[in-house]
Structures are given as structure tokens and as C-alpha cells.
Design brief:
- The chain is mainly β.
- The chain is built from one helix and 53 strands.
- The chain has five domains: about 10-245, TolB, C-terminal domain (Neuraminidase, 6 Propeller); about 255-350, Immunoglobulin-like; about 355-445, Immunoglobulins (Immunoglobulin-like); about 455-560, Immunoglobulin-like, CATH 2.60.40; about 560-655, Immunoglobulin-like (Sandwich).
- Strands 25-31-30-27-28 form a five-stranded mixed β-sheet, with no helix packed on it.
- The longest helix has 6 residues, at about 395-400.
Length: about 675
């Protein structure tokens, strides 16, 4: 039925006032005019083009196209303003929130992949991936700052245009929107309230979604949007409501007020939001400037804007390249008659924060990495808490926090942790005056190693009844989540019984994914028709076994059984030396010759020698005799003689340093 809904997940409004409602459980989009009259509907359940599977988010681009996060089908679908399918894109698991910035770039958040992926408006090409922790709904302001709900830690993270954290504040919400002044509205489905914050995360007010108290499951709010006139639209489970934002107060004089930062506040080096009021009936423009000290003689302009701001973000102040010092901020509002009014606050910069802080869990450990500031700090301290604690370093320590790191490195491994337990880390920089930066907070949960099973294959490396070794190959296992190559090597285990009785028959180092089981060349080769089973074990602090590979059979009639007659001849005394005689001495100098007798068809004799001048052609006829001559003394390892059946070498004979023939190897 048109105009009825089943679990509204998102809502958006076009510049023409048309309202687009994502009717998720009905797998469709419904469009209404600004008065709420039904216009049309499109979608339906399925995997085909234009169909949906539990969609979660909807947004319009600057061309009027409709973009829908088709969550269950792992894609983004694009429709024209009439709801006609254009194309789909994206390679992202379970896309949740979708947003389009002023440059038409498309941002898609996935809690499954713990990231935000960015796509170009040109052919929707994938351009960037930002790893975040459980990102929920997100919006972007006119300065390019990103507001992302961290659904796991229940905070709103505010990032600058380069994805550096500006600040965060608590929020029990999964839906967020901004008005034209940069004020933040959160839809809190737990308290059934809409909560308004300024751009710095300071609470302004809240008001109930249901003034009549009609709070039932069917009325759970599921989407929020502010239009160009700052009207607030809320999509509930089965209806849409529209609220009017508080109107700007009418004043005869212009207003200039800096709300944040406050007077004598310490602010970090980096991106800082300046919020406040700059408007009035005689308003013409405003500008923000700063100067060094409490009474500057020189002012540097941060921004100049012709648009009034009733309450919201006035400017973004990048203090990263400024020295630690006291500064004065000045807001100047210009009236129509060019008269100016001012508001000033004094601020003090404290040390810059670390950037790109990341925590990666292994088994009973956490690896923390970050990027240190280029200057303006003396060291880094990391405080570990067992619960999320807001505040400065002293407040975190008072709440049971422990200083686990104090230094200037950019990585730290915290060990001895409990798997399955959440740990909260706060990174502070400090300067020579023992002033601390604001906290950069991350959390992680150590888990048992997740090496992933290596894929094991066991096959004969020969395909004839001569037997041979068994070649074991496998696909390298995953690392254990520690972010580094923690796999140290592999053990190869063998059994003659499936599922039990395994014994280790060899080991290799990491980076090697092959092993040759040469038991068939042993003095006691395996019996006919014996089944052999193999597993490969990846090793680090714990172990991960592959699935069982096999069975493979050992085949008799090993070439080891064929003993070729190998005879050495000393040319000076013509003494015949049989390989079975191990104590006969051959002179260490003089001309040497060697006679080979090939015992049967199908075998070749090879001379393996480090001096290429002594390598003859192979002899391959049964009963054939072959001689070669060398004019230099044989030394240890200078040559080896081997029978070869086309697949394997056997009966290898070598000469030692004393000219003695070794037993067949």
C-alpha cells in the first residue's frame, strides 16, 4: 500500500522539497512532495538491477540522482530522479551509511569491514579506503569535516578533511544529521529524544520525538534529516514526522559571539573548530583572526564569510604549524553601515596530538602504532583503562588507568592481556612544561590467534611404479591478526591412520610452502598399499592445523633396489675398486680414470662434478662401459657418481678428501 511503511531505515529531502523514504522491510523507496502527498514508488525485493535486499541508507547527489545502500546485496545502486535504474557499483560488505560531499565524492561506511570507502563521481571509481572502528551513520560539513558515529564505543568521532581526529563526544545513537549552521542532531532511539549539539560537541538541547508519549516498538525512530531550511525530518518505524528548527532570534543590532573555544581554554595544535554566533538584522559579513599574546598588534586572518551563522561553526583553525604560545582569537561582525563589533577569547596551545593511532589485537596482546608530531612535544604516554573514561590524563589515572608506555617511539606492544576483554588506550603527548595534549583514544579486544588453516595437498612427485618422495604443498596461512608476520614456520605431520597417530616428520621456516617426504629412500622403505595422511601446522604462540590431506600410497619397487655396478680404476696400477670396498685407498694425485657399468635397461649414469671439464655425457645402455680421465687430484666434494632412472637419483658415490670412496648414500 502506497504511503504505508515497514521499518523506515533512512530519509532524505531534495532541494525541491521532495521527500524520499527508504522503506527497508518492504525493499522499496517511496517519494512524496513537500506536503506529504504520494508521488511514486520503486524497488522491490530481489537481487536483480533495481531490486533491494534490506537497504539501509539513501542520499541524493547534486544531479538529483538517488543513491541507495543495498545492504543485503553488498552494493550501491544509482537511480535517476524518476526512480529508473542507472547502474550499481561498490565492492563492500554490508554497506550501511552513504553520503555525498560538496565535491560529489561518495562515502560508504561498513561496520562489517570496519572502514569507509570513497568513490569518485566519475564512473563511480573506488579511490580511497579509511579504516575506522564500527562506523555507523556519517555526515560531512561545508568545511570537509567528517562526523562519524562509532557504534561500538558509542561516541561521535569528528575528523578533519584528512581524517585526523579533531575530537569525540559520547552518543547513544546510530543516526546523525547537520543543519546549515553546523549544529549536530542525533536521533537517540534509546531515550526517544532528538539531541542537538554545537559543532564542538557541546549539548544545546533535546526534545522528544513523541510529545504525546506514544513510544512503542512500531514507532522506533529510524532516520533523521535536515533540509536547506533547517526543518528536521524523522522517519519512524512506520511514519514520517517533520519538526521546525528554532527560528533565529530577531535583533536590531548585529551579534558577534565566540562560544568555543572559551576564554583561557587550552587547545591542541591541529584542526580546531571555532563556533559561535555571527548574524543580525544589520549583518553584512564576519571574519575570524588570531594574534600572538594577550594584546596582539598584528592579526592574521583565518576566514572571511558573507553568510550569517545563528549558532554553529564559524571557522576551522589549523594551528598545527604554530608554536606553543598564548593567542587571542577575534570575531569581527561587519554591519551594513560598515561599523564593526567584536568578540575575543584568549587561548593557549598545548602539545599536538599523535596521528593515525591504531590498535591491532593478537592473542593476549595488543600492538599500538601511531605517527608522532614533527615537533612541539617531548614524549608520549599511553594510559590503559579497563573501561571508557572521558577526561584528561589525571582523570583517566584516577579512574584506575595505568601508564603502560612513556617514550618517543611510535609503536608499543602491550602483552599479558586477557583474551576476550576490552582494553581502552589513551595516547597523550607532553611538552617540556609537562602540559599534555588531548587524548587520542582507541580500544581493542585481544583474541585467540586466528591463523587460518593452511590448505594442504599431498601428491607423489613421480607417476611411475618406481615410487619416489611425496611432495607436500600448502597455501600460506593468515597471520594471527597482530599486524606483523607472526607465523614462524610449519611442521609437517604424517600418519597411517586418518585422524590420529600423527608424528612430525619435518619442519620448514616461514616463507616456504613445500616439503618432500623422502621416507621411500630409507633403509626400511614403506610397504605396498600403505595409506599415508598428512597435515600442515602453522606455528606461532599457538598452532593452527590444516585439514587432513590424503591418503596417498607408497609403491614398492623403489629404484634403491637396483644396484648399478660402479667401478673406479687407478690408471697407474690398474687396481679395480668396487664400491662395496670402502677401505681401498686411491692415490691423491696423478691421472684418474673411472669405469661405469650400466646394469640394465632404463637407467642412466651421471657424473656430477664441480669442475665442468670433467662432466661426461650420460651413459644409458645396459652393459655399456665408459671411461673419463681427469688430470688434477680429486678433493672432497669434487665429484659424485649417481644412477638415474629419469625421475630420481640413487646409489650416489662420493670421494672424500683422502681419496677414499664413500658408501652409497
Amino acid at each position: 500500500e502506497y504511503g504505508s511503511f515497514n521499518n523506515i531505515q533512512d530519509i532524505c529531502v531534495g532541494i525541491d522539497g521532495q521527500i524520499y523514504v527508504l522503506d527497508s522491510d518492504n525493499n522499496r523507496v517511496q517519494i512524496f512532495d513537500s506536503t506529504g502527498s504520494f508521488i511514486k514508488i520503486f524497488g522491490g525485493a530481489g537481487e536483480a538491477e533495481g531490486k533491494f535486499n534490506a537497504p539501509k541508507s539513501i542520499v541524493l547527489d547534486d544531479y538529483g540522482n538517488i543513491l541507495v545502500a543495498d545492504t543485503g546485496n553488498n552494493r550501491i545502486q544509482v537511480f535517476n530522479d524518476q526512480g529508473e535504474f542507472l547502474e550499481s557499483f561498490g565492492n563492500i560488505l554490508s554497506p550501511g551509511s552513504i553520503y555525498v560531499d560538496i565535491a560529489a565524492n561518495i562515502y560508504v561506511a561498513s561496520k562489517v569491514e570496519n572502514c569507509v570507502k570513497v568513490y569518485s563521481p566519475i564512473f563511480y571509481e573506488y579511490s580511497e579506503k579509511i579504516n575506522l572502528n564500527s562506523p555507523g551513520d556519517m555526515v560531512i560539513d561545508r568545511f570537509g569535516n567528517k562526523y562519524v558515529i562509532d557504534t561500538e564505543n558509542h561516541v561521535v568521532q569528528i575528523y578533519d578533511p584528512e581524517w585526523n581526529i579533531i575530537k569525540s563526544f559520547p552518543a547513544e545513537s546510530e543516526k546523525i544529521t547537520l543543519d546549515s549552521n553546523g549544529n549536530i542532531y542525533l536521533l537517540d532511539s534509546n531515550s526517544w529524544l532528538i539531541k542537538e549539539f554545537d559543532a564542538s560537541g557541546n549539548m544545546i538541547c533535546d526534545f522528544p520525538v513523541y510529545p504525546d508519549g506514544n513510544m512503542t516498538y512500531e514507532n522506533i525512530p529510524g532516520g533523521i534529516f535536515t533540509d536547506k531550511d533547517n526543518y528536521i525530518y524523522v522517519g519512524h518505524f512506520n511514519r514520517v514526522e517533520k519538526f521546525r528548527a528554532v527560528e533565529q532570534e530577531t535583533v536590531s543590532e548585529a551579534v558577534a559571539v565566540i562560544d568555543s573555544p572559551t576564554d583561557n581554554e587550552k587547545i591542541p595544535r591541529g584542526i580546531n573548530l571555532i563556533t559561535g554566533k555571527a548574524y543580525g538584522s544589520t549583518f553584512s559579513s564576519y571574519r575570524i583572526e588570531y594574534g600572538e599574546g594577550d594584546d596582539p598588534s598584528v592579526w592574521t586572518q583565518i576566514t572571511s564569510v558573507n553568510q550569517p551563522v545563528a549558532r554553529g561553526t564559524l571557522a576551522c583553525w589549523d594551528t598545527y604549524d604554530l608554536p606553543v604560545n598564548n593567542y587571542t582569537l577575534r570575531l569581527t561582525v561587519v554591519k551594513d553601515n560598515e561599523e564593526e563589533i567584536y568578540d575575543t577569547v584568549n587561548v593557549q596551545l598545548f602539545p599536538p596530538e599523535v596521528k593515525d593511532a591504531k590498535a591491532t589485537s593478537g592473542s593476549k596482546k595488543t600492538i599500538i602504532t601511531w605517527v608522532n608530531p614533527t615537533d612541539g612535544f617531548e614524549g608520549i604516554k599511553i594510559i590503559r583503562n579497563e573501561s571508557s573514561v572521558l577526561g584528561d590524563i589525571n582523570e583517566k589515572i584516577s579512574a584506575g588507568g595505568e601508564i603502560v608506555f612513556d617514550g618517543i617511539d611510535s609503536t608499543y606492544t602491550d602483552t599479558g592481556l586477557i583474551n576476550g576483554k576490552i582494553y581502552y588506550y589513551s595516547l597523550f603527548t607532553y611538552d617540556i612544561y609537562a602540559d599534555y595534549s588531548r587524548a587520542v583514544e582507541i580500544s581493542t579486544t585481544p583474541v585467540e590467534n586466528e591463523l587460518g588453516k593452511p590448505t594442504c595437498v599431498a601428491v607423489f612427485d613421480t607417476q611411475r611404479d618406481a615410487g619416489g618422495s611425496i611432495t607436500i604443498t600448502w597455501i600460506r596461512s593468515k597471520d594471527d591478526g597482530g599486524g606483523t608476520d607472526t607465523v614462524t614456520g610449519y611442521d609437517i605431520l604424517r600418519s597411517t591412520v586418518s585422524g590420529s597417530g600423527y608424528e612430525t616428520v619435518g619442519s620448514v621456516l616461514k616463507g616456504i610452502e613445500i616439503f618432500y617426504d623422502d621416507m621411500f629412500y630409507s633403509a626400511d622403505p614403506p610397504l605396498d598399499d600403505t595409506d599415508y595422511y598428512y597435515i600442515v601446522r602453522a606455528k606461532d604462540e599457538n598452532y593452527s592445523d590444516s585439514d587432513e590431506a590424503g591418503p596417498v600410497k607408497a609403491i614398492q619397487n623403489n629404484p634403491w633396489k637396483r644396484s648399478a655396478e660402479l667401478i673406479f680404476i687407478d690408471s697407474r696400477d690398474t687396481t679395480i675398486v668396487d664400491t662395496t670396498v670402502v677401505d681401498t685407498t686411491i692415490a691423491q694425485s696423478g691421472t684418474k680414470s673411472m669405469k661405469l657399468v650400466v646394469p640394465e635397461e632404463g637407467l642412466e649414469m651421471d657424473i656430477l662434478c664441480y669442475d665442468e671439464s670433467l662432466i661426461p655425457d650420460a651413459v644409458s645402455n645396459a652393459g655399456c662401459e665408459f671411461y673419463f680421465y681427469g688430470n688434477s687430484p680429486f678433493t672432497k666434494g669434487s665429484f659424485a657418481l649417481a644412477a638415474y632412472d629419469g625421475f630420481n637419483y640413487f646409489n650416489i658415490v662420493m670421494m672424500d678428501a683422502n681419496g677414499q670412496i664413500q658408501n652409497p648414500l
